[in-house]
Amino acid sequence: MKHANLLIVEDDPGIQDMLKYSLSAEGYTLHHAYTVKEGWDMIQNKALDLVLLDWMLPDNSGIDLLHRIRKYHSMLPVIMVTAKTEEEDRILGLDVGADDYVTKPFSVRELNSRIQALLRRSMPDEQPLHIGELFLDPVSHRVKVNDTALELSPTEFRLLHYFMSHTDRVFTRTQLLDQVWGSQVYVEERTVDVHIRRLRKQLQPFNLDSLLQTVHGSGYRFSRQ
Question: Do residue 67 and residue 144 come from a single domain?
Answer without folding.
Answer: no
